[in-house]
């Protein structure tokens, strides 16, 4: 069985095998080689070996294959491993199926021994040879021998200080030789052994360590956050080194084939002359731009030949991969080599723009465009931006702390956290946080996730912070060089300003501005077009790309998308975002409004039915107005209205002041209010006297609500509309509850319909939100027009705790692995999801055409939507602002079912 695949000189054994086998990096190297793009030769050990290593297997099984691949590599590179005259040096690189930037390890310049370093020096100069050797010692020492990296860094700092130089580039050959000597010494002290001086021993040490880096903590965290399965494993690629650190005609760099922030079709990237590997992303020196910008420093201006070659590569790769690529390249003495290509991470803005542009360019079709945009990415396009005027004023007041490169668009305000741990701790208390670092490293991942925004003072647009923030959709600014982070004083400073950890700052990820204090925000461009109407559609390219993606999505989805809306204004937003109806209109919100609550309390305190009816009669016209407003917005779209749900005590005052005020308003004694509040108290508020049970004991409440709905519908019809009300009974657990209330609804509706002399179509259905209802669905469905799963309550009742409890112990549960994930943020298929599946199936057993929807939080969660599509629901209903996300997620669920590839950005 073949597990090692060579590539080199235009031939790649692994071409076409793909990321599953070769990992993203290995697959990219194989494809580029096969395309005839210059790639240093090498071989890739497939991902399945990683799983074996994780299980404790030795590497002996692949030894013969690796040895023969090495012979081929030596031949292709025309250099020999361990040859003191002309040594072959290699990199040993990790690369998983889905890109995990910087999470695992890579070792460069392997093969340098006390002998070969001399050979290298004789051929290419001492300075170069010692620079390679010290980089190798540091990486190998860290990754394989587990010597803390900062010890090597300290050695380097000391030598720099002693020589009075600040940049690595100013170190002489002798300085570097001294660093090498010290590094070797550190290894000896730390491990009790000399640094391994046999290239083969080095190689096997590195291969094992890189496989094991799959299991390091930061890689595990990253996988958890990005839902990458633990058993995928990493591949290992061993590749001949090329040297970007061979003087001023050499360089190393990274490039995107399009702008990863805006999506604009322009070449985008950075490079550093006389540098190697990670130097560009590490932010040690300020990288230079690729495209000529008049500075005379760009690649285009300084190395025009290599730049032209890179342009050709860019075009060929986009044609081949039909997606925006993120490249790593090295130029060795004016000759260009490609070291990596992958589908580039991008912002939501770039995702919609690139997908629609590529359709126009004929690279992909509309269906693929839909699969290219992650539903969550649309949230970025709706996220607020700073108010321009207020920001200008803040700048005038001198609150501009500095500027950096805009790396993740959007506006973020938060309290400053200077470490990832602080960010996590502060965010845990519900505070918005901006994480401020010199640069981020993979260890910071949890802090970056917890933060609303990320600011770094070093590094370019391709630095770790920028790449990770884009992937997470975080607002981010990098390389704000005027700002310094002072850990000793726990503050950040620029020339004349400073702010302490815990203070508020505002960062604009679209312009790169960092401001002291809290700025207010205003709606995004898409919102200004869609909802506010303050920008004309034809003036917004972002809005155009956004609507095109959603139109393509609509043509491909089976699931309907509705919104949860309680007011005419919410209904309007929902409709403008493309909701096809209202899946949940909660009527109790209408009861809480200041003017109405008095009448509601009067109703609750009433002693007789007549008194209660009199109070309800005061509420009736107000409810009717609400419903009419909603019908006006929704036209003939279905509107699901849930009759009163909460227990009555929720409407009564709880503090003495309000009790006194209410007593005066209603002309009753405060004792009476106390007594009633006490009498209505529930021991189990979730399951007590509420919902349909309240409807059964106090039919006059539902009668009033039904009357209000149908009078509103009649009024709407007289205005020429065709309202489509659907009455929903909450909290049903048994068929009898539903049947009783269905009769009540129908009787009340018929009365109003007869009075109005109109035909008003309507439906009566129920919310399935207690586990019993899901199990008894085949009884409840008999006389029921529709089901709507209330997954919020269903989650609480299934897990036995509410969202409020979650704050205290759920994170612990998840960290300890007691629960796989937050059941409130994503549907757990084997808890609530299973009940949804059972309820749907049983309901349709007796009524095959039963309409089934979902109106809990999960209706706007892309992964849950995929599940709802799978179990055959008719629609999902979510908050108005998530309607676009749900439309796209529903389309992608349909496409996934058809087995069209999902995201290529993964
Ligand atoms: P990561 O996955 O963290 O990006 P890589 O395997 O891509 O790690 O390697 C880290 C850095 O080293 C990259 O900048 C890469 O371009 C560079 N590099 C890797 N292999 C070679 C090589 N054979 N020659 C020159 N540079 C290399
Ligand atoms: Mg890389
Ligand atoms: Mg409920």
Entry keywords:
single chain, 906 residues, alpha/beta, eight-stranded mixed sheet, eight-stranded parallel barrel, 32 strands, binds adenosine-5'-diphosphate
Description:
The protein is α/β, with parallel strands linked by helices. Helix content is 47%, strand content 17%. The chain has 37 helices and 32 strands. The strands form six sheets. Strands 13-23-22-15-16-17-18-14 form an eight-stranded mixed β-sheet. The chain has an eight-stranded parallel β-barrel with strand order 25-26-27-28-29-30-31-32, surrounded by seven helices. Helix 18 (445-450) links the parallel strand 16 (433-437) and strand 17. Helix 13 (348-360) crosses helix 21 (541-554). The longest helix has 26 residues, at 609-634. Mean pLDDT is 92; it is low at 901-906. It binds adenosine-5'-diphosphate (ADP) and magnesium ion (2 copies). One magnesium ion is lined by residues 645, 730, 769, 790, 793.
């Amino acid at each position: 069985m073949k597990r090692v695949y060579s590539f080199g000189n235009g031939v790649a054994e692994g071409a076409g095998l793909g990321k599953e086998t070769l990992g993203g990096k290995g697959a990219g190297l194989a494809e580029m080689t096969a395309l005839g793009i210059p790639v240093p030769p090498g071989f890739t050990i497939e991902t399945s070996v990683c799983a074996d290593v994780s299980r404790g297997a030795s590497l002996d099984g692949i030894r013969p294959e690796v040895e023969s691949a090495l012979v081929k590599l030596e031949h292709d590179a025309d250099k020999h491993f361990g040859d003191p005259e002309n040594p072959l040096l290699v990199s040993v690189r990790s690369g998983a199926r889905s890109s995990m930037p910087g999470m695992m390890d890579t070792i460069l310049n392997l093969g340098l021994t006390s002998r070969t370093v001399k050979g290298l020096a004789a051929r290419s100069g001492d300075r170069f040879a010692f620079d390679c050797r010290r980089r190798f010692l540091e990486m190998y020492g860290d990754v394989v021998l587990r010597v803390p990296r900062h010890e090597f860094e300290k050695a380097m700092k000391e030598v720099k200080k002693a020589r009075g130089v600040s940049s690595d580039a100013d170190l002489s050959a002798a300085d570097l030789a001294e660093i090498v000597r010290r590094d070797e010494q550190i290894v000896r002290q730390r491990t009790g052994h000399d640094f391994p001086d046999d290239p083969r021993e080095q190689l096997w040490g590195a291969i094992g360590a890189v496989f094991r880096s799959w299991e390091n903590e930061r890689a595990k965290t990253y996988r958890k956050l990005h839902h990458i399965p633990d058993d995928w494993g990493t591949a290992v690629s061993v590749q001949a080194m090329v040297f970007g650190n061979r003087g001023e005609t050499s360089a190393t760099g990274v490039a995107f084939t399009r702008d990863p922030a805006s999506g604009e079709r322009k070449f985008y990237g950075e490079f550093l002359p006389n540098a190697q590997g990670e130097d560009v992303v590490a932010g040690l020196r300020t990288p230079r731009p690729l495209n000529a910008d008049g500075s005379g420093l760009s690649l285009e201006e300084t190395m025009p030949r290599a730049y032209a070659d890179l342009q050709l590569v860019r075009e060929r790769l986009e044609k081949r991969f039909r997606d925006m690529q993120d490249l790593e390249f090295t130029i060795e003495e004016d000759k260009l080599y490609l070291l990596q290509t992958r589908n580039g991470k991008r912002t939501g803005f770039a995702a919609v723009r690139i997908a629609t542009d590529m359709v126009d360019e004929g690279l992909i079709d509309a269906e693929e465009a839909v699969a290219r945009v992650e539903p969550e990415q649309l949230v970025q396009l709706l996220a607020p931006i700073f108010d321009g005027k207020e920001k200008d004023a803040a700048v005038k007041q001198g609150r501009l702390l500095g500027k950096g490169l805009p790396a993740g668009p959007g506006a973020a305000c938060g309290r400053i956290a200077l470490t990832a741990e602080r960010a996590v701790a502060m965010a845990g208390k519900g505070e918005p946080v901006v994480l401020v670092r010199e640069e981020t490293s993979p260890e910071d991942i949890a802090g970056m996730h917890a933060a609303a925004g990320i600011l770094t003072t070093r590094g370019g647009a391709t630095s770790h912070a920028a790449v990770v923030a884009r992937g997470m959709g975080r607002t981010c600014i990098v390389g704000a060089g005027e700002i310094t982070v002072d850990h000793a004083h726990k503050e950040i400073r620029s020339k004349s300003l400073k702010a302490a950890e815990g203070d508020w700052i505002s960062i604009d990820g679209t312009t790169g501005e960092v401001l002291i204090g809290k700025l207010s925000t205003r709606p995004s461009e898409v919102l200004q077009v869609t909802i506010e109407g303050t920008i004309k559609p034809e003036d917004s390219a972002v809005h155009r790309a956004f609507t095109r993606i959603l139109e393509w999505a609509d043509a491909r989805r089976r699931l309907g998308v509705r919104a949860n809306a309680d007011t005419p204004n919410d209904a309007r937003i929902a409709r403008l975002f493309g909701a096809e109806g209202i899946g949940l209109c909660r009527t109790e919100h209408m009861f809480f409004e200041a003017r109405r609550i008095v009448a509601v309390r009067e109703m609750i305190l009433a002693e007789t039915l007549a008194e209660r009816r009199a109070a309800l009669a005061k509420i009736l016209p107000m409810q009717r107005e609400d419903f009419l407003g909603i019908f006006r917005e929704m036209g003939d779209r279905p509107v699901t209205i849930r009759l009163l749900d909460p227990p009555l005590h929720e409407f009564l005052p709880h503090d003495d002041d309000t009790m006194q005020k209410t007593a005066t308003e209603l002309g009753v004694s405060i004792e009476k209010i106390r007594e009633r509040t006490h009498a209505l108290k529930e021991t189990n508020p979730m399951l007590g006297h509420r919902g349909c049970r309240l409807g059964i004991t106090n039919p006059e409440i539902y009668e009033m609500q039904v009357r209000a709905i149908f009078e509103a519908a009649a009024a709407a019809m007289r205005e020429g509309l065709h309202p489509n009300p659907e009455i929903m009974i909450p909290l049903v657990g048994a068929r009898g509850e539903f049947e009783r209330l269905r009769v009540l609804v129908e009787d009340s509706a018929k009365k109003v319909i007869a009075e109005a002399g109109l035909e008003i179509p309507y439906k009566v259905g129920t919310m399935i939100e207690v586990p019993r209802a899901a199990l008894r669905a085949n009884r409840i469905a008999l006389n029921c027009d529709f089901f709507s799963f209330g997954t919020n309550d269903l989650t609480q009742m299934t897990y036995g705790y509410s969202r409020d409890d979650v704050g205290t112990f759920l994170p612990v549960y998840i960290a300890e692995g007691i629960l796989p994930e937050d059941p409130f943020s994503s549907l757990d298929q084997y808890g609530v999801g299973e009940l949804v599946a059972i309820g749907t199936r049983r309901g349709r057993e007796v009524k095959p055409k039963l309409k089934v929807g979902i109106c809990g939080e999960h209706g706007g969660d892309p992964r849950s939507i995929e599940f709802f599509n799978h179990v055959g629901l008719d629609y999902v209903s979510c908050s108005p602002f998530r309607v676009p996300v749900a439309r796209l997620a529903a389309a992608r669920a349909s496409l996934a079912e058809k087995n069209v590839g999902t995201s290529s950005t993964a």
